[in-house]
Amino acid sequence: STCRIYCSDAKRYLRKCWKELRVGDVVHLSCNEAVPADLLLLNSSDPHGICYLDSCNLDGETNLKQRQSVRGLGMDDRFDVSKLDCLVEISPPTTKIYHFLGSIPVSGSTPSRRIPLNENNLLLRSCFIKNTDYVEGLVVYAGHETKVMLNNSGPRYKMSLLERYMNTAVIWCVGILLIMCLLSATGAGLWQSFYEQRGATSVIPFLPPLPAATELLSSSTRGGGASNQPPTPAVQRLYNSPAWVAFLAFWTFVIIYQTIIPIALYV
Question: Which stretches are transmembrane (predicted)?
Fold first, then answer.
């Protein structure tokens, strides 16, 4: 989309894309034209400075809203954008559509005077100019700082009370699972340590040898020899190590106890 933006070098309005708008630019809009940014209404074709807006795309209301141009700039008789030179102080960008505060300090006035600004002087982006031949406005919020963009955050995910309770329960189940696995693995390591302290020097007779031990034995006898050789002392120490047994037992108990987590509720 394009709009007419005042160019100080050419001293006339030039048609440019919306993405080229910057805060401080002066925009000229005609009737039935969309507002490209949040504008401060400076001038209107209406003798009283009134402008009408169609905000159906913004709030769904079909009735036209009336806006008033800023008064007191010293150009009430005939607005000349080339002579516009002022400082505008406004509130930070906010999601509140009908909230806008600001002021324009009047230079050379004694005592110092300020022109107040409110939401009645603001043309919001995505609205359409209606029943007005033309308007001229100053860009105060552009791009993602406009009110319509700040409110366009997408649909919010609504979490039910049951989902919150279920998430809390699953977290507790995971914590209980880890504690049970840790206690069981610690018990397995202590049991292995107790067995070693009783003087056992060979593989526990009622436990099958590890695949790693079998591979080491087969590699050591690959050149020929008895296939039923007893495990080497290095393999015995690895297999009978309490830390190694506790490590394997922890993941074993994770698989055994994982059924306490109700994963089926999420699938």
Answer: 169-191, 243-266
Residue 122: what pLDDT? 93
The answer to whether the CB of 5 falls within 8 A of the CB of 13 is yes
Which domains occur in the chain, in start order?
Answer: 2-150 (2.70.150.10), 161-220+227-265 (no CATH)
pLDDT of residue 17: 92
Which two tokens mark 140?
Answer: 């105060």
Alpha-carbon distances of 12 from 81, 102, 103, 129, 228, rounded to whole Å: 9, 28, 27, 21, 100
Residue 61: which of 98, 31, 99, 109 has the closest Cα? 98
Q: How far apart are CA 5 and CA 88, in angstroms?
A: 18
In whole angstroms, what is the distance from residue 206 CA to residue 183 CA?
23
205: cis peptide before it, omega within 30°?
Answer: no
> Is the CB of residue 133 less than 8 Å from the CB of residue 49?
no
CB 35 within 8 A of CB 56: no
Tens digits of per-residue pLDDT, 202-249?
455 555 544 444 454 455 545 545 455 665 666 666 666 788 888 989
Asked if 185 and 250 count as a contact pair (C-beta separation under 8 A), the reply is yes
Q: Tokens 């009622």 belong to which residue?
A: 206
Q: With 0.70 as the threshold, say if the pTM is over it.
A: no
